[in-house]
Structures are given as C-alpha cells and as structure tokens.
What does this fold into?
Amino acid sequence: MSTPDAIRWNNNQLELLDQRALPNTCAYLSYDRAEDVAHAIRDMVVRGAPAIGITAAYGMALACRQCGEQPSVAAWTKALAAPRQTLADSRPTAVNLFWALQRCDLVVEQYGNGPGLGSAMLALAQQIHQEDIDINRRIGDHGATLIEPDSLVYTHCNAGALATGGYGTALGVIRSAWREGTIRGVIAGETRPWMQGARLTSWELMQDAIPVTLATEGAAAQLMRELTPSWVIVGADRVAANGDVANKIGTYNLAIIARHHGVKMMVAAPTSTFDRTMDGPDIPIEQRSASEITHSQGTAIAPQGCPAHNPAFDVTPASLIDAIVTEHGVIHQPGRDTIAAHLDKATTGGAS
Ligand code: MRU
It folds into this structure.
C-alpha cells in the first residue's frame, strides 16, 4: 500500500487530501478558486513546504481561469495581483510558496501577451508537481548513502509523501534507506500541536511496512540515550544562505539533544527550499493561534484565558547540522561557503 496523493488535478479542479482528518478519514476537498486554495493552505488541509508550493501553483492556474482572457502581460498582472497576494499571505515560512509564485510570474511574462496563459499556468503547476516527485527520489537516494547498516533513525513532523508531490524528503531518505536494507526502525516524534508525526508520519510508514515507533517530544533525550539512533532526519521550510534551517517547531530542540548524545543531524530538502537572500535569524516565523495549544480537537485543555505562544517553526543553527541533502547531493558541515558552492554547482548543471 502506498500513501494517497496529497494533491491531485481532477476534472478541471484541484483536489486536496484533507490532512486534518488523517489518519481516521481519507477524503478529498475540491477547489476551483484561488482564494479558497489559500485558505486551505493556511488551515492546514495541505501542509509541508513542497506541497504548499505545488498547491500555490495550482491556485494560480485556477486564478487564471477566474480572470478570463486578458489582452496583455500588464492586464494579466493586474488581474492576478489579488489572488497572488492571497496565496502569498497564506503561510510565511515555507519559501517554496514564494519560489512557486515566482515561477508563475515568469509564465505570465512569457505567455501573457497571447492566448493560452491559463493552460500554460496549469502545465507549470503539473510540471512543478511532477518534478518534485523526481527530486524527492533523488534526495532519498543521496541521503540513503549516509545511513549506516542497522540504523535506527529519528524523525520529526511529517516530511513525507503527504508534505510533497510524493515520496517525501526526510521520509524519502528513510524510504530509500529501507529499500537498501540499512534502516531497522524509525522513531517518530508526535509533533504538537498538529500531531503531524503521530497522525501522518506513522501512517505513511506503517503503510510501507517500515517499522515505526511513536514518541512524545519530551521523550527525545531519554530515547536518544537509551536507543542511540544514528541520525535525526528532518525536512525544512527554508534553508538560509548561512546554512541555518527553519523547520517545524521542536527541530532546534532535537538538534541540541542530538549533538549532546552524538547523534548526527540530517536535513533533507530540495533546492527550492533554499533562500540565498537571508540568514537564519531573518527567516519569518509563522505565529499561529494560541487556541491550537489551549485546545485539542475543540476541547479546552488549558484554563480559560490562559495565554499561549505558538510559533509554528524554529531555526536550527547550521553548526548543529551534520548534513543537508538536496537532489544534487550532500552538503557536509553546511555553512555559507558550502551552501553557495553547492547551489552554484547545481545551477551550472554539476552535482556534488
Ligand atoms: O506546519 P507544517 O506541517 O506545514 O510543517 C511542515 C514541516 O515543518 C516539514 O518538516 C517541512 O515543511 C518539510 S516537508 C517536506
């Protein structure tokens, strides 16, 4: 059994697997308006950096259809400005969102003066979607070369098929290493408050018959001491120019704990998740509603009126990361120079 597609284009509509209801209910919601797609991203129907980027591109394809034909690039740009902005405002941290929208802008420039921009935008969304699956398989295979035989690994949040076009980044590495026979098991941190580890990662791995054990986040240090995993493997929402990595809140804690216990830290991410324009401290961190912490499935679990702070992501300093794996290879000891060299080589067609 394999994980169902998080995103599909069906009958001229965008269909998103409602990840809020998993694993108990597996149901798709249909979208034909860009504004509704933006709400779906913000409300966590679809989540995970690459999946957010792919979804935004489909959102722009829907926006083109909503606008009807426009006579020029200038007219298209004006007509698309509002839906584009709504999509851009949906979630601030995953840079894949902005990367995808910039690719959409190029299509407007290229096709906006003639007929057929709508089909070109849809073709772009489908291309980004397909490319992402191929990229994840390459990330998986590069990452798997780092996994020693008989490894137990630890993962956080969900950086799997559900968070991407398919296969996954961190779970892509785990899938490839499992196929190679080097992984004997995976510990999945539950990942409060949305429980992506408990609800999504354990579900994906169980469907692939990869042995997974769920743990509370507070158990991480104790489990690292007792079970000595070889790697923590996570995805990323933004890799900064200096090698710092924004990822799901709790990743930074894990990196500190891992370093203390001699466990190596791997980040698996496509180059579309890299942002050369800023360093880690400048990455915008999404702040989500306090009610996500004070309530669980609609029921209050904290005293009424209790203040809560709910950053959705944190930034792990590059010095705590042993390797970042992209579709082009492995960046060992990531930092400003190694990141720049890797990305420069990637854009000139080389691999490291
Ligand atoms: O809030 P989420 O569920 O969108 O956060 C997801 C993560 O932090 C993932 O680790 C990251 O986006 C990488 S997904 C391949």
About this structure: Residues 47-50, 94, 157, 159, 163-164, 169, 196, 234-237, 247-248, 312 surround MRU (CB under 6 Å).
